[in-house]
């Protein structure tokens, strides 16, 4: 009886993990902004907020990061495909210049890949 | 002057400002101050930017009247660093405290368990006692480990999982299970009525301790940028209205006239107007010998004025100075990734959810197939796997080393643009070197003069003749005469004969200077001069014949001298296993003479600029990894084509932006330094990756219990917590070893 219960819970957990992290619908936390607007990305508690950003492609843009998380993982933000990285000051806005680039998805993350986000140029 | 003053900008740091409402109040108050054109607040930075000629003090007064406080911001970048350091320090102490409290509860509890072996709940008294303990542990989880839980929750909502997730799940599971034991012990088999409160507390304590030590060690990895920032002066002595005033560096503008006295740092980039001095540029270029600067010479911010007073005009200030650009570039490169990290990146991206699945599967296996007490084993396995699996170490393996490596390079005048260039520099096969300016000094010099009579007199006549000529070789002759302080005269009837030479009349004597064709044309027999000229030509020199009044008087030879340190640097590069090839537009004979002297394997002479790129491409087609060394602008296509382009020389703005590696010093030693540094860094990265991979690939199965049949023991979650704390600490410390890197070159 208990055995069945525990096993069922275990299997359900595995299914839940797979669904939530890989298959599940990614709710649109994405923000679309015009180049002239200020977009602030708060770095706090292990996530970028918002973590999906949409920008029009072909224009340079500026992102404003506000790091409120003292943990060292969050010290840098890296856009590997755009060859951009920036050291984020704590409790202070750091601007990151995004050059005009081709449309596409450009993931960004902290040094340890713990904090992750996607920049979509379209 | 007045116009410049109008454009002046002052930055203030505000205190007491917290809401958007304050912004308007302050902005309008400051706008009321006489001379203020515009006032703008950045709420995130808590700064106020004032445009206009208003006195800073009256702006501050206005802010105070509005009920807040302000001060003039000093050297913002450096101050930001200091604040950053202070905050890091606070965070460090905070982590230490958390760790001390958590361990303060966890350690005695663990000792109790080990000594008395009474960690089970069998009576109502046990329930009560452990219930209290459970609440104390809960307080520890909330106060010392709260950030793991809030981070995990937030990440979960974003469909992502981080190390917080693992720590929160691990410690949370242990606590929940223990609480279940306390509340309803009768529902569980007797062997499983064991509590694990000490594990939760200990894990939180150990991981916080590891993080604290990591914060400490990380601070040291960025030492290089700190050193560069210290080169920036905070104030400058500016001439305003005929007076010398000390101004904060932010207020210096291009066009200002500045004064630096002996022993002072040069505050901004500029050009000398008056005075002469020796300037030590070693901090920027790695060049140990001070450079003589006089009127018209360029000065770079951050270099040290040694012995004279200089008046100069500011040309580039603030973020435009070369030093600022270098700092920016180093900072950017420090955060970049190396290709070798791709796999680790991919793994750590999906790692945490995979580990969660592994943990559940392992727990189920223990529950269904394992020996009794099954529930307890299941819990220990679940907790240990979750805790030990944090991929932090894996994620840190490359960035930490790149950070130290790039910074170290900057210290030796080697600016690496990104991690990729750093990685590729370590396994080059061929180094293609541009001759002029890299192997040689780049400006021809008079090397030999042989004459029938007085050689100084001949040189005087030839230099007088050449004064009017624009041929590059002429400059070498004139310079040589100047060095000997000979009095030159103006020639009359000067004539340049294309592809032959020049002729003219000086003090009534008809002078001819040119090649053998010129002498043939004028019917002057060369005699035994021809043999002597051939000897010099074979040594790679350009020889010219000189005749006075129709009679051969002597020969002079001009050559672009080989740089003093070229031979030593090439020996170093050969020792590093590189094959060297030379590219030059010069003629075959002089190129080969240089190559022989320097022991260069192959020579490509008489090239057009576009040939250089073709040769690099051909080498690559033959399967070689090619490094190209050139002086930036004319070699740009070849530099871009090569796997790694080393721009050598003054480190012009263009070169800094376009080359893979920029060498601040015009020496091939820089390339050798770069290769050595790259190998040291890559070695370090491999050690880190190996450590992290081994740790995770061995750690997870051990935590899952594969050793149980052999040892009869499961990995304690506490040991897992300690191991996790150690892993990233090990990686950061190992990366720090790179700070002791020294190139093999000895001065
Ligand atoms: Cu982490």
UniProtKB/TrEMBL annotation, chain A:
<dbReference type="Pfam" id="PF13473">
    <property type="entry name" value="Cupredoxin_1"/>
</dbReference>
<dbReference type="InterPro" id="IPR028096">
    <property type="entry name" value="EfeO_Cupredoxin"/>
</dbReference>
<keyword id="KW-0472">Membrane</keyword>
<feature type="transmembrane region" description="Helical">
    <location>
        <begin position="6"/>
        <end position="23"/>
    </location>
</feature>
<protein>
    <submittedName>
        <fullName>Cupredoxin domain-containing protein</fullName>
    </submittedName>
</protein>
<keyword id="KW-1133">Transmembrane helix</keyword>
<keyword id="KW-0812">Transmembrane</keyword>
<dbReference type="InterPro" id="IPR008972">
    <property type="entry name" value="Cupredoxin"/>
</dbReference>
<feature type="domain" description="EfeO-type cupredoxin-like">
    <location>
        <begin position="14"/>
        <end position="120"/>
    </location>
</feature>
Automatic annotation (TrEMBL), chain B:
<dbReference type="InterPro" id="IPR044492">
    <property type="entry name" value="P_typ_ATPase_HD_dom"/>
</dbReference>
<keyword id="KW-0187">Copper transport</keyword>
<dbReference type="InterPro" id="IPR018303">
    <property type="entry name" value="ATPase_P-typ_P_site"/>
</dbReference>
<keyword id="KW-0479">Metal-binding</keyword>
<feature type="transmembrane region" description="Helical">
    <location>
        <begin position="689"/>
        <end position="708"/>
    </location>
</feature>
<dbReference type="InterPro" id="IPR023299">
    <property type="entry name" value="ATPase_P-typ_cyto_dom_N"/>
</dbReference>
<keyword id="KW-1278">Translocase</keyword>
<keyword id="KW-0812">Transmembrane</keyword>
<keyword id="KW-1003">Cell membrane</keyword>
<dbReference type="InterPro" id="IPR036412">
    <property type="entry name" value="HAD-like_sf"/>
</dbReference>
<feature type="transmembrane region" description="Helical">
    <location>
        <begin position="347"/>
        <end position="369"/>
    </location>
</feature>
<keyword id="KW-0406">Ion transport</keyword>
<dbReference type="InterPro" id="IPR001757">
    <property type="entry name" value="P_typ_ATPase"/>
</dbReference>
<feature type="transmembrane region" description="Helical">
    <location>
        <begin position="95"/>
        <end position="115"/>
    </location>
</feature>
<feature type="domain" description="HMA">
    <location>
        <begin position="8"/>
        <end position="71"/>
    </location>
</feature>
<keyword id="KW-1133">Transmembrane helix</keyword>
<keyword id="KW-0460">Magnesium</keyword>
<keyword id="KW-0813">Transport</keyword>
<keyword id="KW-0067">ATP-binding</keyword>
<dbReference type="InterPro" id="IPR059000">
    <property type="entry name" value="ATPase_P-type_domA"/>
</dbReference>
<dbReference type="InterPro" id="IPR023298">
    <property type="entry name" value="ATPase_P-typ_TM_dom_sf"/>
</dbReference>
<feature type="transmembrane region" description="Helical">
    <location>
        <begin position="127"/>
        <end position="153"/>
    </location>
</feature>
């Amino acid at each position: 009886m208990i055995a069945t219960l525990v096993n069922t819970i275990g299997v359900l957990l595995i299914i839940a993990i797979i669904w939530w992290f890989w298959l599940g619908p990614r709710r649109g936390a994405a923000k679309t902004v015009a180049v002239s607007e200020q977009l602030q990305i708060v770095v706090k508690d292990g996530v970028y907020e918002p973590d999906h950003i949409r920008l029009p492609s072909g224009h340079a843009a500026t992102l404003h990061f506000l790091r409120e998380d003292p943990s060292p993982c969050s010290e840098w933000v890296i856009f590997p495909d755009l060859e951009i990285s920036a050291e984020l000051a704590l409790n202070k806005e750091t601007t990151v210049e995004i050059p005009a680039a081709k449309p596409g998805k450009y993931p960004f993350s902290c040094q340890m890949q713990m904090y992750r986000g996607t920049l979509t140029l379209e | 002057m007045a116009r410049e003053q109008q454009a002046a900008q002052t930055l203030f740091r505000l205190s007491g400002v917290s809401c958007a409402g304050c912004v308007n109040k302050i902005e309008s108050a400051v706008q009321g101050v006489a001379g203020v054109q515009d006032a703008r607040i950045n709420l995130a930075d808590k700064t106020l930017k004032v445009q206009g000629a208003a006195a800073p003090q009256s702006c501050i007064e206005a802010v105070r009247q509005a009920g807040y406080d302000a001060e003039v911001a000093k050297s913002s970048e450096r101050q930001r660093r200091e604040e950053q350091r202070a905050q890091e320090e606070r965070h460090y102490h905070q982590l230490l405290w958390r760790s001390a409290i958590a361990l303060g509860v966890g350690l005695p509890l663990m000792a109790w368990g080990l000594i008395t072996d009474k960690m089970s709940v069998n009576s109502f008294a046990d329930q009560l006692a452990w219930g209290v303990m459970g609440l104390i542990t809960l307080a520890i989880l909330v106060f010392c480990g709260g950030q793991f839980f809030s981070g995990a929750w937030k990440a979960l909502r974003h469909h992502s999982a981080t190390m917080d997730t693992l720590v929160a799940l691990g410690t949370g599971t242990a606590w929940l299970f223990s609480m279940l034991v306390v509340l309803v012990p009768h529902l569980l088999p007797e062997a499983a009525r064991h509590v694990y409160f000490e594990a939760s507390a200990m894990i939180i304590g150990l991981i916080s301790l590891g993080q604290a030590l990591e914060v400490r060690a990380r601070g040291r990895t960025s030492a290089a940028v700190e050193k560069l920032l210290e080169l920036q002066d905070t104030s400058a002595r500016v001439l305003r209205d005929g007076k010398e005033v000390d101004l904060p560096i932010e207020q210096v503008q291009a066009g200002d006239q500045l004064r630096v006295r002996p022993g002072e740092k040069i505050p901004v980039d500029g050009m000398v107007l008056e005075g002469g001095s020796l300037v030590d540029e070693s901090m920027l270029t790695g060049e140990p010998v001070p450079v003589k600067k006089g009127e018209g010479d360029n000065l770079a911010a951050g270099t040290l004025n040694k012995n004279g007073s200089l008046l100069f005009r500011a040309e580039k200030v603030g973020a435009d100075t070369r030093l600022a650009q270098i700092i920016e570039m180093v900072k950017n490169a420090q955060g970049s990734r190396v290709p070798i990290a791709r796999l680790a990146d991919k793994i750590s991206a999906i790692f945490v959810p995979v580990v969660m699945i592994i943990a559940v599967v392992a727990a189920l296996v223990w529950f269904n197939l394992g020996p009794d007490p099954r529930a307890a084993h299941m819990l220990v396995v679940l907790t240990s796997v979750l805790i030990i699996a944090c991929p932090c170490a894996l994620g840190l393996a490359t960035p930490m080393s790149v950070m130290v490596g790039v910074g170290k390079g900057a210290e030796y005048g080697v600016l690496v643009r990104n991690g990729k260039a750093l990685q590729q520099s370590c396994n080059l096969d061929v180094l293609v070197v541009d001759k002029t300016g890299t192997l040689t000094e780049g400006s021809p010099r008079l090397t030999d003069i042989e004459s029938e009579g007085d050689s100084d007199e001949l040189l005087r006549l030839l230099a007088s003749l050449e004064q009017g000529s624009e041929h590059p070789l002429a400059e070498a002759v004139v310079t040589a005469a100047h060095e000997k302080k000979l009095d030159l005269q103006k020639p009359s009837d000067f004539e340049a004969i294309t592809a032959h030479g020049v002729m003219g009349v000086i003090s009534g004597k008809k002078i001819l200077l040119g090649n053998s064709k010129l002498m043939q044309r004028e019917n002057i027999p060369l005699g035994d001069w021809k043999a002597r000229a051939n000897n010099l030509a074979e040594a790679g020199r350009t020889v010219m014949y000189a005749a006075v009044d129709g009679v051969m008087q002597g020969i002079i030879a001009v050559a672009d001298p080989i740089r003093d340190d070229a031979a030593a640097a090439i020996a170093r590069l050969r020792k590093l296993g590189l094959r060297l090839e030379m590219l030059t537009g010069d003629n075959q004979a002089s190129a080969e003479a240089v190559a022989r002297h320097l022991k260069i394997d192959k020579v490509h002479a008489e090239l057009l600029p576009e040939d250089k790129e073709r040769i690099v491409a051909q080498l690559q087609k033959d399967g070689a990894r090619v490094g190209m060394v050139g002086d930036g602008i004319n070699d740009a296509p070849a530099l871009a084509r090569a796997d790694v382009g080393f721009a050598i020389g003054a480190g012009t703005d263009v070169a800094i932006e376009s080359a893979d590696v920029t060498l601040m010093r015009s020496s091939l030693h820089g390339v050798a330094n770069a290769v050595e540094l790259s190998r040291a860094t890559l070695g370090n990265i491999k050690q880190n990756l190996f450590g992290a991979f081994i740790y995770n690939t061995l750690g997870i199965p051990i935590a899952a219990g594969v050793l149980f049949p052999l040892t009869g023991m499961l990995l304690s979650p506490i040991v897992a917590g300690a191991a996790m704390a150690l892993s990233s600490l090990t990686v950061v410390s190992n990366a720090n070893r790179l700070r002791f890197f020294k190139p093999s070159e000895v001065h």
